[in-house]
Design brief:
Number of helices: 9
CATH architecture: 3-Layer(aba) Sandwich
InterPro entries: AB_hydrolase_fold, Hydrolase_4
Keywords: Hydrolase
Number of domains: 1
Largest sheet: 10 strands, mixed
Order of helices and strands: EEEEEHEHEHEHEHEHEHHEH
GO molecular function: hydrolase activity
Number of strands: 12
CATH superfamily: Alpha/Beta hydrolase fold, catalytic domain
CATH topology: Rossmann fold
Protein name: Alpha/beta hydrolase
Shape: globular
Structural class: alpha/beta
Distance between the termini: 31 Å
Organism: Litorihabitans aurantiacus
Radius of gyration: 18 Å
CATH class: Alpha Beta
Length: 317
C-alpha cells in the first residue's frame, strides 16, 4: 500500500538532518508523507516523533537532546502537513485518524530496516491522540509510547464539549470541507520569534492562528476521542507528560501569565482522567511551567520534560 520512493536527502533543517518521501495510496490529491532523520543510525533504539494539528517537525534541538539520551531520532510529517503539503491540498485534511496508520507503518518499516530493534512512538497533541490509537490497534509494532500533551477532549464549556461531536458530524455530512471554527493565535504568537517567542518555525507550515478547522476533520477527532474515553488496551509501556496546569480551562479567558507557564490549548485534567483507560502500564509525569508543547517550554521546564522522557525510556527499555 505504500512505497518509499526517495533516498535520504538533505532536509530543510540543515546540518545532519535528512529526509525522504513516502508515497501513499491514492486518495485523490497525491498525498505523501515525509520521514526525517537526525544523523546516521548508531543505536538499536529509536524514537519516531509525530506532530500535532497545524504543525510539523522543526524541534531540532529537542531531537538532539533526545538523541543524546541513547537513541536515534526520526520524525514524521503526516500527509498534508509541513514537508508533505503539496500545492492544491487542503492543509491537515483527514476524515479518519486511522488513515495515518499507513504512513506510520511505512515509517516504522524504514526505521526497522535501519537496524532498530526497539522503537518508541512519541506523539504531541493530536499526534498524541494518533499515537494512542495506533498503539492500541498495532500492539506488536512498538516497544513503548511517549505522549506529550495528548489531545483527548475539547477544552471548552461542558455544553459545547457534549455537542461538538454531533455538530461536527452533521456539518461533515452536509459539507465535509466546511470551515466550522478557527483557532486563537494566543499560543502561536507566544512561541514564534516574530512575536516575542523563542522559536522560528515556518508560518506557512505552522500558522500562528493555525489552519481552519473543517467539519470532517473535527468529526474524525471527536470519534477518536470517544474511542479513547471508552477505554483501550495498550500492551506496551506508556509515558504521558503534561503541564502541571492549564490556562483557560473550560473556555475561560487566558491570562498573560498563563500563556508563559501553562497549557493554554488543552485541559490537562482531561489527559489525567484518561490514564486509567489506556492500558495497564501508564506513567503520568507533570511538568511545572510546561507549555502545550512541552518541548517548546522555557528552559527549566523543557529540561525537566526531556530528562523525564530520556530517563523513562532508558529505565523501561
Amino acid at each position: 500500500m505504500h512505497e518509499v520512493t526517495t533516498a535520504w536527502a538533505p532536509d530543510v533543517l540543515g546540518g545532519d538532518f535528512v529526509a525522504r518521501t513516502i508515497e501513499l495510496g491514492d486518495d485523490g490529491d497525491g498525498a505523501v508523507a515525509t520521514l526525517v532523520r537526525l544523523g546516521e543510525p548508531t543505536h538499536e533504539r529509536a524514537i519516531l516523533y509525530v506532530h500535532g494539528f497545524s504543525d510539523y517537525f522543526f524541534q531540532a534541538e529537542h531531537a538532539r537532546t533526545l538523541a543524546a539520551g541513547g537513541q536515534d531520532v526520526y520524525a514524521l510529517d503526516l500527509r498534508r502537513y509541513g514537508r508533505s503539503l503539496r500545492e492544491g491540498q487542503v492543509p491537515g485534511l483527514v476524515r479518519d485518524l486511522a488513515e495515518y496508520d499507513e504512513e506510520i507503518l511505512a515509517a516504522l518499516a524504514v526505521v526497522r530496516a535501519e537496524g532498530h530493534r526497539q522503537v518508541v512512538l512519541l506523539g504531541h497533541s493530536t499526534g498524541g491522540l494518533i499515537a494512542t490509537l495506533f498503539a492500541h490497534h498495532h500492539p506488536r509494532a512498538l516497544q513503548a509510547v511517549v505522549l506529550n500533551s495528548p489531545w483527548y477532549d475539547i477544552n471548552d464549556t461542558p455544553l459545547r464539549r457534549s455537542l461538538s461531536g454531533t455538530v461536527a458530524a452533521v456539518a461533515a455530512w452536509r459539507d465535509p470541507d466546511a470551515v466550522i471554527s478557527r483557532l486563537s493565535g494566543t499560543y502561536g504568537s507566544s512561541i514564534h520569534a516574530s512575536t516575542g517567542g523563542e522559536w522560528d518555525f515556518d508560518l506557512a507550515w505552522k500558522p500562528i492562528e493555525g489552519f481552519p478547522v473543517r467539519a470532517s476533520w473535527l468529526s474524525a477527532i471527536r470519534r477518536a476521542q470517544r474511542r479513547v474515553a471508552e477505554g483501550l488496551d495498550i500492551r506496551v509501556p506508556v509515558l504521558m507528560c503534561t503541564s502541571s496546569r492549564s490556562g483557560g480551562a473550560g473556555g475561560t479567558a487566558v491570562t498573560p501569565a498563563q500563556v508563559r507557564s501553562s497549557d493554554v490549548l488543552l485541559d490537562v485534567k482531561h489527559m489525567w482522567d484518561a490514564v486509567a483507560r489506556l492500558g495497564d502500564d501508564v506513567t503520568l509525569r507533570t511538568v511545572p511551567g510546561g507549555l502545550h508543547d512541552l518541548a517548546l517550554s522555557a528552559p527549566a521546564a523543557r529540561t525537566d520534560y526531556e530528562r523525564a522522557v530520556t530517563s523513562w525510556i532508558s529505565d523501561r527499555l
